[in-house]
Design goal:
Largest sheet: none
Oligomer: single chain
Helix content: over 70%
Number of strands: 0
Mean pLDDT: 83
Number of domains: 1
Order of helices and strands: HHHHHHH
Strand content: under 5%
Radius of gyration: 19 Å
Low-confidence stretches: 126-137
Length: 137
């Protein structure tokens, strides 16, 4: 099952990153935005917009598949790793530069996800016969 999670989250990250980078490149290619027929035509024929749509659809299907098996906490947190992967792709392939605050933010996102994943693994399982603190209230 660990392989399922690992590859599932990698595929989810790839689709999420494709969607975000696709929208970024589509927006750059179709700029400036004017709500007229010429801009709409540029948007419709822009190949990156279709990459973004494929990315979003792929991410949705992958996420729904992962949710069938993975605990919700780590699954939800892993979707936020796209912030870090989009930053990396932007730096490596699009020539963008990161500020120190962006680097700190990316490290905080990764730390929060690691913390949430470790908490989920160490949390005791509640069974049907056990009581929780909510039952006492």
């Amino acid at each position: 099952m660990r392989k399922f999670y690992f590859f599932g989250f990698l595929i989810l990250l790839a689709f999420d990153t494709l969607a975000q980078v696709g929208f970024k490149l589509a927006a750059t290619s179709t700029a400036p935005v004017f709500l007229d027929l010429a801009w709409l035509h540029r948007a419709i024929v822009e190949k990156w917009i279709y990459c973004a749509i494929v990315g979003y659809l792929g991410a949705f299907v992958t996420y729904m598949t992962i949710l069938k098996h993975a605990p919700i906490g780590p699954a939800f947190a892993a979707t936020h790793l796209e912030v870090v992967t989009v930053l990396l792709v932007s730096v490596l392939f699009l020539g963008e530069r990161l500020s120190p605050i962006q680097i700190i933010g990316a490290l905080l996102v990764m730390g929060g996800i690691a913390l949430l994943a470790s908490q989920e693994q160490s949390a005791p399982e509640l069974t049907a016969g056990s009581s929780s603190s909510l039952d006492a209230a």
